[in-house]
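Q: Okay, next protein. This is CAAX protease family protein from Sutcliffiella cohnii. I've checked the sequence twice, so it should be correct. Can you predict the 3D structure?
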Amino acid sequence: MNNKQAELVKQMTDKELIKHLYFSQFLFLLIGIVLAFFLFDGWSDFLSIWIINIYDIFVIGSIIGLAVVFIDLFLMKYVPKSLFDDGGINEKMFQRRSVPHIILLTFIIAVAEEFLFRGVIQTHFGLLFASILFALLHVRYLKVWLLLVSVVVLSFLLGYVYEITGSLFVTIWAHFIIDLLLALKIRSDYIKNKLNNNGGGSNG
């Protein structure tokens, strides 16, 4: 466990953590917009990454998202917890959030990160560069090898899906499904633990 990071998270209030999250995601969006202005040849070039194909978005995107969640849940169940320890950031981020707030947060994260890393960076600099940069910016995972491998594989997977579908909507939807379901799992586990601690398990 990254003790220094965990201690820093403990010192932050929920409000500070959420403000930091919103700030970082809107910064990603801003960087993406600025880069897009200079890198895309024109409006039609920019629109070409936003292909709307219902099958690709909701079938391929959902299958990818659900498969990633299934694998994550399997690993969480059978590998030591220390290998999935990000310093408590995800737990503190989502465990006390309402479901609508979780939906909003995970949607913003999916849009901001996919727009910047896949829509702008991968489109102009390639899959390898975008995927490595995406993984490196998840700095809290760098000291836990399984988390690092997971985010690298996920980054290349989403990048490959973007390559074969040509649509940013597909990777946004897949990313949203992954983050949403895992965040809801964190919230559900927190509520169950709270009920068990308060009522000795009689209410849960």
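A: Here is a summary of the prediction. The CA atoms of residues 162 and 171 lie 6 Å apart. The two ends are 30 Å apart (CA to CA).
Q: Noted. On to the next one.
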